[in-house]
Amino acid sequence: MKSLVSISDCSKEYILRILDLAEKFEQNPNNKLLDGKLVATLFFEPSTRTRLSFETAVNRLGGRVIGFSDAATSSSSKGETLKDTIKMVSNYVDLIIMRHPVEGAARLASEVASVPVINAGDGANQHPTQTMLDLYSIKKTQGKLEDLTLSMVGDLKYGRTVHSLLMAMRFFNPKFNFVAPKELRMPEQYIDYCRKHKISFREIEDMNDILKETDILYMTRVQQERFTDLVEYEKVKNTYTLHNAMLDGSKDNLKILHPLPRVNEISEDVDDNPKAYYFEQARNGVYARQAVICDILGLI
Ligand code: CP
Question: Which residues contact 218 (CB under 8 A, 6 or more apart)?
Fold first, then answer.
């Protein structure tokens, strides 16, 4: 039995296999591969895209879904431990998909579950299926994953999507620009990870300095829910806003990604620019998640 907890557990071969499968699911997203399978989506934290794209993925493959989108409606609100919840749900389903605010919760769940667990985001730690859809989006728009310049902008401290993507890109010789205010700079453990894996990176505070050289501009939201001090949040929340005019002179192949939701970091005047790719990126989530689910259940 295998689970998908962290992108750091994934080999290059596994990642490329999932991307190939995602392409096949994009060509044919409706079939009966999950006929007779029951999947639980346990969301202890809010979500729009991740939960709904997972549920779309399962439904389009003929499976069924149970679960909750608000932990307040589950017995965790009465004090039931995560361990007990996972052991219970394991009795009912073939696969558990879980989002939880605590870093490491998905690892714990995978250790106590009797069915596979997919991490749909654990605190500021990891979001491996977001990374699969990000890689799929990069490959689809750039025609390759190798030798690209990726600029990650915004909340690099708490952003689990940038942490996961950074780790996955180690196989593809990227050049990173980490663009963040000093309060939200990439944590030291990921800087060390870059050094250890000989990943090229620069840390910068001005977004304008990197726009002309970038292939993938990965914008992120400053996540209010991760701050313990709201005064700190107010100080940094509007540090970066991308406006359409700022894209003049950018590379023809530039694509703008964002895991979404956005707040102020991408102005709506960017949405009609052909370089904006964040809504298509979210749609790619269905295919990438179909690939991960079917692979984990041994159905391919
Ligand atoms: N990208 C992402 O995780 O979005 P949601 O929080 O809406 O699931």
Answer: 134, 150, 151, 152, 153, 162, 165, 257, 258
Residue 127 CA, closest ligand 1 atom number: 3
> Is the beta carbon of 279 within 6 A of some atom in ligand 1?
no
- 135 CA from centroid of ligand 1 (Å): 16
Where along the chain do its domains lie?
Answer: 7-126+285-296, 128-282
78 catalytic per annotation: yes
What does the block give as tokens for 32? Answer: 């009966």
> Would the pLDDT of 87 be above 80?
yes
Q: Output the CA angle 204-206-207, nearest 5 degrees.
A: 100
pLDDT band for 300, please (50, 70, 90 cuts).
confident
Q: Is 69 in the pocket of ligand 1 (CB under 6 A)?
A: no
Give the per-residue SS3 of 42-102: EECCCCCHHHHHHHHHHHHCCCEEEEECCHHHCHHHHCCCHHHHHHHHHCCCCEEEEEECC
pLDDT at 1 exceeding the cut of 80 = no
On the question of a common fold for 7-126+285-296 and 128-282, the answer reads yes
Protein residue whose Cα sits closest to atom 3 of ligand 1: 50
Domain covering 7-126+285-296, topology: Rossmann fold (3.40.50)
pLDDT tens by residue, 50-59: 999 999 999 9
Count of beta carbons in the 10 Å neighbourhood of residue 142? 16
- Evaluate: CB of 259 within 6 angstroms of ligand 1: yes
Write down the mean pLDDT value for the chain: 97
187: region left, alpha or beta (phi > 0 left; psi from -120 to 50 alpha): beta
Fold entry, domain 128-282: Rossmann fold (3.40.50)
pTM: 0.96
**pLDDT tens per residue across span 223-255:** 998 898 999 999 999 999 999 999 999 999 999
